[in-house]
Each structure stands twice: as C-alpha cells, then as structure tokens.
Design goal:
The protein has 501 residues and is an all-alpha fold. The protein contains 21 helices and four strands. The protein has a domain of 101 residues. The chain has a two-stranded antiparallel ribbon with strand order 1-4. It has a two-stranded antiparallel sheet with strand order 2-3. Helix 6 packs antiparallel against helix 7, helix 10 packs antiparallel against helix 13 and helix 16 packs across helix 19.
Length: 501
C-alpha cells in the first residue's frame, strides 16, 4: 500500500520540476536564447523547494539533471548551466536557510587528498600557460560533482528524511525500465510517441533501447543503479519483491547494449558478497536467492554477452605498433586513424604525463569537456587529432574516459591523489556497515555502497565521477549515506564532525 505522504511528496516534486523547466524554457525563448537566464530560472525554482523541504529539493534536482537532455530536445531550448547554477544556489541555501541542519566536516585525509587534486590542477594549468578562459571553467566542471558530494554529506538527515527521495526515484526507475522494455519490442512506435529521435543502433546482436533518454548508456546505468539498490534492500530486509525487481532491473540494462553496466553490476554484486562474508548465515541468505537469478539472467543473455564482449576484444585490443606510435617522439596521425578512441585516450594520457611530468598538461587540455569546447592542441602532439571521435570535427568521444583525463591534465601526482580520495570515500562507506542503525537505514547505506563500487568499475570506460547526471546520483547517494550514518550511528558527534560556528 502506498502511503499518502509519499504520494503528496511525489506530487510536489514532480510539479516543481515541471514548473522549473517550463519557466526556464519560457525565459530562454522570451530573451531570444539566453542560456544563462533560462538555466538560472530553473535553478531558482528548485532551490526554492530545497529551502522549504531539503529532501524534496534534492529529488527535484535529481529529476532536473536526469532528464536535462530530453527536455532540451523536446523544447528546442539550450539550458547548459542548470546543474552549476543549482549547486551554487543549494550551497547558499544550506549555509543560510538550513544552517541549523548543517554539520561541518573536520578536514581529514579525504579533504586533503581532494584539495591536492585541485591545487595540482591549478598549478599545472599555470605552469603550462593554459588560457584562463579554459582552465578556470575546467576547474569548475571538475569540482562541481565533488561539491555536491559535500553538500549532501554535510546535511543532518535521518533515513526518514531520505525516504521521499528513494520513493520518487524508484517510481521513475520503474517507468524508465518499463518504457525501455516496450521500446525493445516496438522501437519506432515508442520513439515516435515520445517525440524522441530515432536511435537505430545494434550492438551484440540486439537493437539497443534508450527509453526516455537520448543515449542508451543512461538506460543501462539506471537499470543497474536501481537494481543494486533493490538487491541491497533484499540483503538487509529480506524483501523478496526487492530481489525480483532488482534482478529485472539489472537484466534490463542489457538492452542498452553497453558493456559498462554489466561490469558495474558484477563489481557491485562482488562487493555485496565480500561484505556479507563475515557472517555465514548472512552470506547464505543473500547469495542463495541471488545466485539462481544471476544464473537465469546470464543464460538468457549469454548469446548477447558473447557477441558484445567479442566486439569489445576486436575493438580494444590494439596492435603494439599503434601503441608504440602514440608514445613515439613524433607520432604520425595517419597511422593512428584506425585506433579506438578510448585506447588512444589511455595511451595518449600516459604520453602526456611523461612529457609534462609531473603536473600534466593542465585543465582543459586532455580528455575533458573544455578540451572539446576549445579544442586542445595536445591531441595533435600525439597524433590523436585524426581519430574519429577525437578529431576537432567529430570530438564526441573525448569525454568517454575519466582516469586519462586526470592523468593527462594533473599528472601522476593528481592521478594518485584522486584515486586515494575515491578509495577513502569507499572506506568511509564500508565502515558504516559496522554502525548500529535501523535495518532500513542499513539497507540504504549498503545500496549507496554498491552503487559507488559500480561507479568505480564504470570509471574505467566513462567520466562517471564528473559527468552529469550519473556523477550527481553516485555522489549524492554516497553523501546522504554518510550523513545518515553520522546522524543515526552510535558515534554521531565524535571524530568526523564539528558543529557549525
């Protein structure tokens, strides 16, 4: 039975999101395509809801960033600064309206490591003479998802505060996965009904689906994100319906034709098993029912998986001479044309880190959004500027990785600092399992941890920690899990936090 308060919360959140985008699109058209004004209006409406009800505002933020590309396609408007504007306004609202709910986090290794990344990025940019109109926006784009992590982590919330967020996102996930399943059976009618562009691409022998998104990668991620959360609920609370839906959602991610969801799902389930190993009873309770579901999905999907990973091997196993060419003193772009973009980014980042040792080439120079907006000359240095997806004319694959961006732009030290920061966050999430909390809270914390492990695996093939909307969902879940653990745990006022001054 659905509780009336949840229905009311969902209605408020959906209505606010609709009003926000309607107002933003209206202002954008009224002012003749003013991207800044339109984005600011969307942010103001959502931030207003956050000022009244923080959990509702965060959920509206999640919906806004989740459907940003789809709304822009439907409306014909361009609102590229919505998430940046929203993070700024949410932060200001937290510091003013919700000051009493703010818990300042004492700086520790986690904060020192993240600060090191930003300092190295700035020093690298200055030492490489990167133009300010490139590296300053690049710094903002790098920092915004981490800022959202701390924004959520500093809230004083309990699980009951988070419940509306989970309820609405669960309903959205059901809708998205269901539409994708129907699209798989009748692709063109579904795309026409929702007035979305055709995406007639086949991978692994199946026609991929996108549901309400513009790209199938988001559909695959949403399936795993929701699936791992539901499986975590089953592991803690024993709800069979959560296991069934979690399995269906995870299996639906195959329809995206993407490898990252499969690898992320495997990583998340492995993390679940690793965490449960301490208790044999808990392990049997979790793995026993999950194993048949995993085997069933694997058997059904085996032909697709075989073809998909066969294509992967053919695409990503490069001849040694191509790798050597990128690392040579004078790479020949004509020789590197057939190289896969992700491979080229990984090898090119190693070459850039070597030649710009130890700080890297600077922000906006390699693998980042700004290196695509103002096409970086570094790509030509390593012969990557003629590879499809990395060329100035077709740069759509430039942001397809995360670690090459960090290595190429901040060097070896930046790479080590970023990796260490992400591992410390994982450690903090892992430690929450030892705290005494209500079962529902522990299920949420476990789900956030599994989603975070999925993101770590996914970061090998995508810019998951900096690219919206996935970065906000991953860091938002992690931040709220840490906030719930701090508020409900037995040591809620000890080492990790300090009251606001």
């Amino acid at each position: 039975m659905i509780h009336r308060p949840l229905i009311l919360s969902a209605s408020i959140i959906v209505a606010t999101t609709f009003v926000a985008y309607s107002a933003g699109v209206g202002v954008d058209r009224l002012l003749g395509g003013n991207e800044v004004a339109g984005s600011a209006v969307v942010a103001l409406v959502v931030a207003g809801l956050f000022g009244l009800r923080p959990a509702h505002g965060l959920t509206s933020f999640a919906l806004v960033v989740l459907f940003a590309d789809t709304v822009e396609w439907w409306s014909g408007s361009n609102l590229p600064y919505v998430d940046e504007s929203l993070i700024l306004l949410l932060g200001l609202t937290l510091l003013t309206v919700h000051r009493s709910r703010l818990t300042l986090v004492r700086p520790g290794w986690r904060e020192a490591l993240l600060l090191s990344v930003f300092v190295l990025a700035i020093v690298s940019s200055l030492s490489s003479d990167v133009a300010a109109d490139v590296w300053v926006p690049g710094l903002g784009l790098l920092a915004k998802s981490f800022a959202f992590f701390y924004l959520t982590a500093m809230l004083r919330v309990e699980y009951d505060d988070v419940r509306p967020i989970l309820g609405v996102l669960f309903a959205v996930a059901v809708l998205i996965v269901a539409i994708g399943a129907v699209e798989f059976l009748a692709r063109d009618p579904v795309r026409d009904f929702f007035h979305l562009p055709a995406y007639a691409r086949e991978r692994g022998g199946i026609s991929v689906v996108t549901s309400l998104f513009m790209h199938p990668a988001l559909y695959g991620w949403m399936g795993v994100f929701a699936g791992l959360g539901l499986i975590a609920r089953f592991a803690v609370l024993g709800d069979r319906w959560a296991l069934v839906l979690g399995t269906l959602f995870s299996g639906a991610s195959l329809l995206s034709g993407r490898r990252a969801p499969i690898l992320g799902l495997m990583a998340g389930l492995s993390a679940l098993i690793a965490r449960q190993h301490a208790s044999r009873l808990s392990l049997r309770r979790t793995v026993g029912p999950i194993a048949p579901a995993v085997v069933l999905v694997a058997l059904v999907a085996l032909p697709v998986l075989g073809r998909l990973f066969g294509e992967t091997l053919a695409e990503y196993v490069e001849p040694p001479e191509l790798i050597a060419e990128v690392l040579s003193e004078d790479p020949d772009p004509a020789v590197l044309v057939p190289m896969a973009p992700r491979n080229a980014l990984y090898v090119g980042s190693v070459a850039a880190a070597r030649d710009y040792f130890p700080l890297g080439a600077g922000l906006g120079q390699f693998g980042s959004h700004m290196s695509r907006v103002q096409y970086s000359p570094v790509y030509a240095e390593y012969g990557l500027n003629r590879i499809w997806g990395l060329s100035e004319r077709h740069p759509m694959a430039i942001t397809d990785t995360f670690w090459p961006m960090i290595l190429g732009e901040t060097g070896v030290f930046g790479l080590v600092a970023m990796f260490a920061f992400l591992m410390v966050v994982l450690r903090d999430l892992w430690r929450l399992a030892g705290q005494s909390m209500a079962p529902a809270s522990r299920a949420f914390v476990l789900g956030a941890r599994l989603v975070y492990v999925d993101a770590l695996a996914r970061s090998l093939t995508s810019g998951v920690f900096v690219a919206p909307p996935i970065a906000y969902f991953v860091f938002g879940a992690a931040g709220l899990a840490l906030a719930v653990g701090r508020t409900e745990g037995p040591h809620s006022a000890t080492v990790e936090e300090a009251p606001p001054s």
